[in-house]
Amino acid sequence: MLPEAISVLENSEPAIRHESLLADCAAGPVSTAVAEIFAAAARPGMISLAGGNPDLSFLPMPELGKSTDAIVANQGQQALQYGAGQGTEELRIQICELMALEGIIGASPGNVAVTIGSQSALDTVTKILCNPGDTILTDDATYMGALGTFAGYQADVQPVRTDDDGLIPEELQLRIVSLRNAGKHIKFLYIIPNFNNPSGITLAGNRRNRVVEICREANIFVVEDNPYGLLRFGGENLPALRACYPLDVIYLGSFSKIFAPGLRIGWALLPPHLVQKFLILGGSSTLCPPALSQMLVSAYLRDYDWQAHLSVAVGSYRQRRDAMLTALAACMPPGVTWTRPDGGFFIWLTLPPSIDTQALVHRAFDANVAFFHGAAFLPRAGRSNQLRLAFSAVPAGMIEVGIQRLSRVISAAVDT
Ligand code: PMP
């Protein structure tokens, strides 16, 4: 070893020595705000309105235990083995049947790739479409896990203005023109059309085809992320954006909210010409989706009245949403407004503009209530006077207490 190399090794801290070895996306400090909120949310006595966890109490656990036993006992050689990178044929056929409930009729199992949650589907889509610096369009507040993925590929994420009916088509059109004039290479619009995470807002029916048409004319893909679509408890069903546009929309689905996130099964429905690229490039990080999980999902869809279980869960989400809306109306000080979602897990609060909700996170911990501050969902770094509340995982009575605690924290901030 060269003498100067030895002295570098002896004289510096590993973290400093290794800084120059890190990729751009990992260099510098990383935000620990999200991990801190999840850690605090798990403290005894805390009412967590932070994490968007599904309520699994509606699942028939003893029966699922028996199904798991039977899969391992009877098909263990397959269930515990590597499997096809695209996923099992049985599950891909079932996924096509399930997507028909969202208005996607006649999808081919050959265009479906089963993935490790829809998170890994989004990762692969970004991998096959984006070079560093390429532009991704999003709603003005969007899923923080998607923002994390986009950051990993060093994409340039640009928000498009939304209102109570979701993304505004005219704004989308203007934004595409101005970004192109600025020399940006726009690859796709990432959109959660049903019960957006974090806002709970749904893209209105009369905007859906318009949004896809604008992207199609501009030669930009639409990536439709729809984990909450079947969790509707009010309003009318709206067809998926993918329904009429098999070549222009990449559709992402998940069993995490309608069955169980711990199984880590999601999927992508792709335009046919992207399937091989998706499988080859996605397979380089995951090899194949887990066989046992896929077989249990297939058994659940095949052997159980899963829609009945889901409707019990959706009934409970409706009750929790109502409890949260009632408590907000009773407790929040003037100047605070919120969304009224027809499904999904989240309500989005807007506080007076002078308040930075990140500054309230620790005060809320002290009051034993947790939420996510709005800045976590912003495509571009900044402060936010908004915050996300999840009603999915907390019984109605506790939601009321949680909102009372939160309203004291917010009232104190509004008064100062
Ligand atoms: N998209 C959205 C909008 C989500 O809210 C989530 C999970 N919270 C995901 C994707 C990831 O889901 P999965 O468990 O399928 O990876």
Explain what you see.
This protein has 416 residues and is α/β, with parallel strands linked by helices. It has 14 helices and 15 strands. The chain has helices at 3-11, 14-17, 33-41, 61-79, 89-100, 117-129, 144-152, 169-181, 205-217, 275-286, 291-303, 306-331, 361-366, 396-415; strands at 47-48, 112-116, 135-139, 156-160, 162-163, 166-167, 186-191, 221-225, 249-254, 265-269, 337-338, 346-350, 369-370, 372-373, 386-390. Strands 2-10-9-8-7-3-4 form a seven-stranded mixed sheet, sandwiched between helices. A hairpin with a 7-residue loop joins strand 11 (337-338) and strand 12. Helix 4 packs across helix 11 (291-303) and helix 12 packs parallel to helix 14. The radius of gyration is 23 Å and the shape is globular. The mean pLDDT is 95. 4'-deoxy-4'-aminopyridoxal-5'-phosphate binds at residues 52, 117-119, 143, 145, 192, 197, 225, 227, 254, 256, 261, 266.
